[in-house]
Amino acid sequence: MTEPQAVTSKEEPPERAPSDTMDRIVSWFSRHRSISVIVAMALFSVLLPLLVLLPPLSGFNRQGVWIDNFNGAGIFVLLALGLNVVVGFSGLLDLGYAAFFAIGAYFYALVASSFTGVHLPFWPMLILGAFVAALFGVALGAPTLRLRGDYLAIVTLGFGEIVPVFFTNSDALTNGTNGIAGIDRPSLPGITFGAANPLPFYVTIVVILTIVLIFLYRLEDSRLGRAWMAIREDELAAASSGVNTVTTKLLAFALGASTAGLAGVFSASRLVFVSPDQFLFTVSFTVLAMVVLGGMGNIWGVAAGAFIIFLIQSVFLRQLTNFLQPLGIPFISDIDFLKYQFLIYGIALVSMMLLRPEGLFPSGRRKRELHTEGEMEELTAPGEAAEPLA
Amino acid sequence: MSDQAVPANEEMILSAHEITKQFGGLSALRNITVDIPRGSIFSLIGPNGAGKTTFFNVIAGILPPTHGSIDLRGQRMIAPPARAWLEPVVWFVPPLLVLALGIAVSGGNIQAIALWSLGALLIATVILPTGLARPPWYERAIAAMGIFRTARPNDMVRAGVGRTFQNIRLFQYMTTLENVLVGMHLQLKSTPVDALLSSRKQKQEEELARKRARDFLRLVGLTGRDHELARNLPYGDQRRLELARALACEPALLLLDEPTAGMNPRETADMTALINRLRHDLGLTVLLIEHDMRVVMGISDWITVLDHGERIAEGTPEEVRRNPKVIEAYLGTPAG
């Protein structure tokens, strides 16, 4: 048995690898993460509307429709990012996440529509909507503090059912099943937000997403982010290290809910209409599936997963149906793939859990969690894996 | 240390008074009174199932005792609650007052009442989570009303108790450095808002925290492995890391639950030397549960022996070694 010092010095490479320009750029961006997020989001959001002008994508939809689809995708990316705080970072399984989405949307519908006759401006209401949803997040979190795993999932599932039922049944307040129509669009001097002009919405959601991404990266690396992870790993050990588990969990619920609140306000102003059936369990389930398939705990992975899955379900399944129908192949041409959306989800989730449980774009940590010791050696760097001491 | 009994006038860091813990009909601890003087290494020994770990969990705020109280540096931390009924009153009176006021002034106007009840709801959603989270200022406020609530594990950490676990409980999928950083949770003062804004305060604190975390790792002999996952460390290093995490809480009293379990003789000797150094260099008080008698006899100032939840002996290592009751408890027969 050698001295600990001797062991460690062997592992540290004494000489720095010669850094070429590429390396330097990569390391600069990894040190300035907020700038990296801004640059990446700017590049991506400019390229995306141009990309759909090229075949075959240009054959599916007009550019305007594509951008409108991207706006829808942006809402789900936002939802997935928020749920990732609760499920991915803190390990609290939330099956009723659509409730906070609904609360954000109905909040905006009530303060800015012809239904109530109140017309408050969009931009401050976006922030206030997030705040209101956060309050409800705390209200849901408080009674579930002692619950974990399955029990927590069931309580949140109940909450997710109560909220749409409440909106359905309180006719006077929410116009019941008919929903609230005539919601105000956002307004900025010189810019028209409208159904015919989805570009301002696109810019708005890109800006919201960029800010949320920066905030999430900063939180993940902070004292709070570490406390979330510690609670996910071992709640008792976290408490015995001085972490106030109550505050930490409530903050996770509040931040997750506030992100959903943002998405709700944005969604209500984009569709100018809310109704209870926009916020059923399928939404909670879809967002959870996005988080799991994208790679729980990994911010980029979850965002990319949500984006891809939304586009598959809202664009490509329809295109596949349209493409196969005229070909007249027996049986296959008769399938409406949109109807089988959840079957496809189910198959995707099951095969994912069997083949790649960490998701499409896993965080390094999750990958290590879900693979067994034997597999680990392939995954870790050779220097790490070769550990003779035990 | 001198071989006379612990002097009564010496300042006690922890006083456990008549602690009893019952699990259903089983008494895991019966009337245990222990006073731990500042700066000592105080050991708790006894056969398996004697109640040592239960006692640790009571001190750490994990298990509330059935009877008895614990004072830390003269401050009552753990005891049966007092005037507990008053706390829900504190929670519910303000929103109900607002609601009553609203109904009184709005004179039957439904919309006005709805607005007032919304205000009441808002107040409730602020007070209730605060009451559950119990931040220090809230604790002081309810203490002023004569309400006493027994301390939680994180309150004990704040008051200066750090601990390790008998079966190692690291954050397995966090790195070595992150584990220690979680231990420093209460030393770090930046808020989530600081983190969101990435303020100068936050950045400086994080940088300092990392530096300090590396110091703790160096102290226990774990240098250069900052980014290794805790679970990938060899067993002895995991124990060391757990100790580093406990030290990162900057405790005045360190509870070590079998710190040398599963270690080879060389590692055991290192750990013993380290514990001694913690007392001498950092001025820590150590409460130790240990099965390895060489360790216990070698470093303890004072030993308390538990068996079946009762204290059967106490004294200096020399006294305990010769105590026939202790020998009987360990060997099952009177010493011949």
Q: What are the defining features of this structure?
A:
heterodimer; A: 390 residues; mainly alpha; ABC transporter involved in vitamin B12 uptake, BtuC; two-stranded antiparallel ribbon; disordered N terminus; disordered C terminus; B: 336 residues; alpha/beta; Rossmann fold; 3 domains; six-stranded mixed beta sheet; four-stranded antiparallel beta sheet; 19% strand
Could you characterize the architecture of this molecule?
The complex is a heterodimer of chains A (390) and B (336). Chain A is mainly α. Chain A has a single domain, classed as ABC transporter involved in vitamin B12 uptake, BtuC, CATH 1.10.3470. Chain A has helices at residues 4-11, 21-31, 33-51, 57-60, 63-89, 98-111, 122-141, 149-169, 171-174, 199-220, 223-233, 235-239, 245-271, 281-294, 299-324, 341-355, 364-370, 373-379, 382-385, and strands spanning 180-181, 273-274. In chain A, strands 1-2 form a two-stranded antiparallel sheet. In chain A, α5 (63-89) packs parallel to α10 (199-220) and α6 packs parallel to α8. The longest helix of chain A has 27 residues, at 63-89. The termini of chain A are close together. Chain B is of the alpha/beta class. Chain B has 3 domains: 1-80 and 152-160 and 253-336, P-loop containing nucleotide triphosphate hydrolases (Rossmann fold), CATH 3.40.50; 86-144, no CATH class; 171-250, no CATH class. In chain B, α6 packs parallel to α9 and α8 (200-219) crosses α9. Chain B has helices at 52-59, 86-106, 110-133, 136-144, 153-159, 176-183, 192-197, 200-219, 235-248, 265-282, 293-299, 317-322, 324-331, and strands at residues 12-23, 26-37, 41-45, 67-72, 75-78, 161-163, 253-257, 285-289, 302-307, 310-315. In chain B, 46% of the residues lie in helices and 19% in strands. In chain B, the strands form 2 sheets. In chain B, strands 6-7-8-3-9-10 form a 6-stranded mixed sheet, with helices on both faces. Chain B has a 4-stranded antiparallel sheet with strand order 2-1-4-5, with helices on one face. The longest helix of chain B is centred in the middle third of the chain and has 24 residues, at 110-133.
